[in-house]
Amino acid sequence: MNFRFRLFFDKAFKIAVTILSISVIVPLILILFHIVSKGVSSINLHFLIRDQNLSESGGSGILNSIVGTFLLITIASVFSVPLGIIAGLFLVEVKSKFVEFVRILVDVLHGIPSIVIGIVTYLLIVKPFGGFSAISGGIALGLMMFPLVVKSAEESLRLVPYSLREASFALGANYVKTIFRVVLPTCIKGIIVGTLIGISRIAGETAPLLFTAFGNPYFNINPFKPVNALPLVIFNYAMSPYEEWHRIAWGASLVLVGIIFLLNMTTKIAGKKWEVQF
Amino acid sequence: MRQDNLFNLALYFGGFVAAMIIVIMFGILFKGSVLSIKNFGIHFFFGEKWNPPMEKFGLLPFAVGTILTSIFALSLSLPFAISLAVSLGIYCSRGIVSNILSYLSDLLAGIPSVVYGFWGLFFLVPIVRNLEIKLGIMPFGVGIFTASIILAIMIIPYMSSMIVELIKMVPRELVEAGYSLGATSFDVVRKIVFPYIKSGVISGIILAFGRAFGETMAVTMVIGNVNSVPKSIFSPANTMASIIANEFPEASSGLYLSSIVYIGLWLFVITFIVNLLGNLIIRKFRAGENEF
After folding, report:
1. How far B56 CA lies from chain A's nearest CA (Å)?
2. Domain A47-273 classified CATH 3.40.50.1820?
3. ipTM attached to this prediction
4. Nearest to B70 by CA among B203, B201, B216, B266
5. Is the distance from CB of A143 to CB of B56 less than 8 angstroms?
6. A94 close contact with B: CB closer than 8 A
7. Domain ranges of chain A
8. What would the pLDDT profile of A225-237 be if each residue is shown by its tens digit?
């Protein structure tokens, strides 16, 4: 091709790519701007320390949902983190054909839609035990978090150099002691960072909670009763016809995005600081 | 040694549980949909009607809705995602601009689906409604078109960060060899970078498709919830995920519930296959990468 043509195409390509990139940034910035500008005006102390409580007096806050979100996250972590670490250890420690099979299934589980996980949890837990509960919501979120914990545990475990184990063996420690006293302590920070990433991914999930945690306008920390969560408030209030409720939904959106943003910053800073290094 | 054996047993138990989760999910969904499978058989796929009071249930409206939204969203996001990836991976791979952009795209990837839906409902729907008035069609505002745009906006950061990572895996020597032979950046991108990461990009597209296919909340909020086969790209419709989110809580009769679970089963099977395919391709790409 002619030299000039090639230079022309190069320029044209660069311009096209730049224009497309900039035009994609615009809606993204717009979304952030809208969430912040709409959200800030609805947040005040009242909003953060009162419950939703549909009665006229003393209502329209989101404290119950903030507490509910943290309750659900705690339940999800209790279920998924220990099991995820064991599964991560399995992927790294065991040598067999079964391992690759499990790894693929865990990756695939990560891609299963959240609404499907909601149905499964409903059929498995809500229906047989007769009612919506925070526990079932927590389990649904735990199922979503599990593959992320396994992946991060596996990656952190792989970073531990073999020489460290050999040193432990040389001192006469057996295999189990080596794992619990040497390998896991060296990479526990990496696993914590991975868990935080998992939490930031599930904190905003709505679909698995629709038929599990269900929602509850009153303050509740009993895991066997339904609870509300920030994403549920946003969904229910956004779909309502009332202006006042939309305002609450914007406030809840900003709080939720703020929590997720803080979690992401923490994992970024912790991830840099706590990198497994030798 | 007994301790070691016990520990090994625990490890195998962990691996077994991890593998069983997905098998159990399939089993539960299948068991839940038996009633509907028996009742409708093959006709479920071609049924155009979804009428709970009449106990008539068909998948077709939602299958069409899902396929239209996810494919439209994917083709809409593809040029933007690739451009963003090329800008971030090749034109400004370091420096302030790149840092700001990658922080921004991380931030956006963290925004929950429900918030995207909420934003779409209040900012995108009026814009689309105006557009529809100008085009002279029924100004619903909500519908497949709106849902696809929201989905595309959600997919772009995910897809472009995946492609940037792939671009960074291209060996520097190859790129520099290209430049030293007098290739322009365009030539390098077209003839060296993309051929090298082709299979990775394909798997990225497949995985993004899987996400768009199963995305629930944002779509549910802006698609309009109409249970008939969509006539055009602007008509309100329902996807397989959004019909579940909308009607699962009110499914009273056994057959109604079972039919919704059946839709869930298909959603599960399709996303399972799509993710399996995407993951296998990226695995093969990574293995080839190690050999290079």
Report:
1. 21
2. no
3. 0.91
4. B216
5. no
6. yes
7. 3-40, 47-273
8. 999 999 999 999 9
